[in-house]
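Repro:
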Amino acid sequence: MLWRHAGRAAAAAILLLAGATAAWAADLGFSATVGLEITYTPIPPATYNIGSDLELGFRMPGFSLDSVTSFDLDGFAGEEVAFALDLGPARIAEEVRFEPEFHWNELSLDVSVVGVGIGVDWIFANIGSTQTPSYSMGVVVSLESRMPFGLSVASVTGFGATDVVNVLGGADAPFCEKALYLYDYLATVCDPADDPDVTIVDGLYFEEELLRLTLEYSGMVASHTMWFDAGGLSQLVFELGYVFADPAIAILTCVTLDGSFAPTEIDAVLDVLVDTVRFTSWTRFAAPLFPVPVPVLFAGQGFVVSFELSGVSVTSETDFDDLFLFEAEKIAVTATIDPITFVSLTTFDAAGFESECLQASVCFSGVRLETRAQFSWEGVELVSFGFELEF
């Protein structure tokens, strides 16, 4: 019962604070958000954990500050603080995370001059464990430029850092990633994914270099991405396709090669939008795990269909494995009856029902109330409820 009283007291205090500051917030020209989420998570066989996330955000011209503070039954669980200062051609940002001990500190400087963007990220992170912390530093330097005729150039270099593609959003093939939007939507409809980080490794040495060229011209799209490490070329990704506006059709092929120019993956994507119906097909080929005469074999097939009818949006994904046997099915239903939104995500695998996620939210007068429940055939996995206030 103690956590219930504590949660109610915290919610009341936040609402009173928000009400007291809302009157003069508009006069100072800034906006703010306050949110609180309480989460109940069963821990088999007979215990549970209860956590709370307190979110605070402030916005004013040229400046933003966000904070997320987490507690559970053991006490302090984590803290994330991020701020950004926009000076026009330059932007300075810093993010600090504790989980619950110190985990990450990233200071970023981005400058845009004559259509050329230059970014430098200094990162200090704990790459060890809670019991045995180990601290290391990484530096990531990025350069991006977009030409008037649809050509873009990007370069990202990591010193003491790998997975530098995450600086560009994490997509190895940017056009295929855009065409596979429905897959990303189903993966994050109930549990939004965090922005990907680079990986900090021991020692401030050159670790990885990424070079990317992209082209969009008269419906044709193409990209070429190369990765280099200390040993030289490590991976290449080629992407080529056509994107038509009327009718809305995207046809894309993506080929991944290793450092010896041997193909490791081939993806074929077809994305079609007709009125309110969208259909996406994703065919995958991959290098076999055992020697065969051909370099790649069929690795899987996925189909996604999305349509809207009378204010209800339905999205269904069907996946097949490398033997073209049924592997998984996801069905998401979103219904909005202003001001209430209801979301359901049901997942099946080859054995039958796997999991269910239910989410409901209501928005009124700058307040958003939300509740979510996740369960599988083993029982309840998570229940949460919370609110967000904007003023």
